[in-house]
């Protein structure tokens, strides 16, 4: 594992780097739970935020969010984040989420929401303690049956986390 300062954390906008994100998803989750290339392109051109962590030109982590709305409120839905296995617990996830928050503010979002598995304690630590989110809702079996290696045979229960106006705009 390299030191965190050796990684470049930046918004992904090029077609080559977007394809790297698609390939990275396959490496992490297989072919079942990935966001396809055309969806990432469309999202990035319409308010979505895609961030990568790079070791020179190799993608070692990413974070992806798209615009959401409820009634008249528009917010960013942070849908996916993953880091390469040798960088888990390194702080890279925190850097990705921090960059996402920075870009969300620049693009005019006042709130970010996302879900995470309540049984994943390291994700709870990151999302609640380090990022200052709070649990807004609990969704039992939110995504239904999932067949990837991480979730196969388990219910897809999720907490909805919110980082809102008071904490996103600092």
What does this structure look like?
Helix content is 31%, strand content 31%. It is α+β, with helices and mostly antiparallel strands and 170 residues long. It has one domain: Gcn5-related N-acetyltransferase (GNAT) (Aminopeptidase), CATH 3.40.630. The protein has a seven-stranded mixed β-sheet with strand order 1-2-3-4-5-7-6, sandwiched between helices. α3 links the parallel β4 (73-83) and β5.
- CATH class category: Alpha Beta
Please summarize the sheet with the most strands. 7 strands, mixed
List the domain count as a whole number: 1
Mean pLDDT over the residues: 85
Listing every helix as H and every strand as E from the N terminus to the C terminus, the arrangement reads EHHEEEHEHEEH
Query: Spans of 5+ residues with little confidence (pLDDT < 50)?
Result: none
* Lateral arrangement of strands in the main beta sheet: 1-2-3-4-5-7-6
Helix- and strand-based class?
A: alpha+beta
Instruction: Please identify, by name, the CATH architecture.
Output: 3-Layer(aba) Sandwich
**Percent range for β-strand residues:** 25-35%
Global shape: globular
CATH superfamily: Gcn5-related N-acetyltransferase (GNAT)
Radius of gyration: 15 Å
CATH topology: Aminopeptidase
- Percentage of residues in helical conformation: 25-40%
Task: Give the number of DSSP strands.
Answer: 7
Alpha carbon gap, first and last residue: 31 Å
* SS element count, helices: 5
């Amino acid at each position: 594992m390299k030191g965190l300062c050796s990684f470049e954390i930046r918004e992904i906008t090029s077609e080559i780097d977007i394809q790297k994100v698609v390939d990275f998803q396959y490496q992490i989750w297989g072919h079942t739970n990935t966001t396809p290339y055309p969806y990432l392109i469309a999202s990035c051109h319409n308010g979505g935020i895609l961030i990568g962590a790079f070791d020179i030109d190799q993608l070692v982590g990413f974070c992806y969010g798209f615009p959401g709305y409820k009634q008249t409120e528009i917010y960013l839905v942070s849908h996916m984040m993953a880091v390469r296995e040798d960088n888990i617990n390194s702080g890279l996830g925190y850097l990705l989420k921090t960059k996402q928050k920075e870009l969300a503010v620049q693009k005019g979002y006042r709130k970010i929401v996302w879900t995470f598995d309540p049984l994943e304690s390291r994700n709870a630590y990151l999302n609640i303690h380090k990022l200052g989110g709070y649990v807004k809702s609990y969704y039992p079996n939110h995504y239904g049956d999932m067949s990837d290696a991480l979730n196969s045979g388990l219910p897809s229960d999720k907490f909805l986390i919110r980082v809102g106006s008071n904490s996103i705009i600092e």
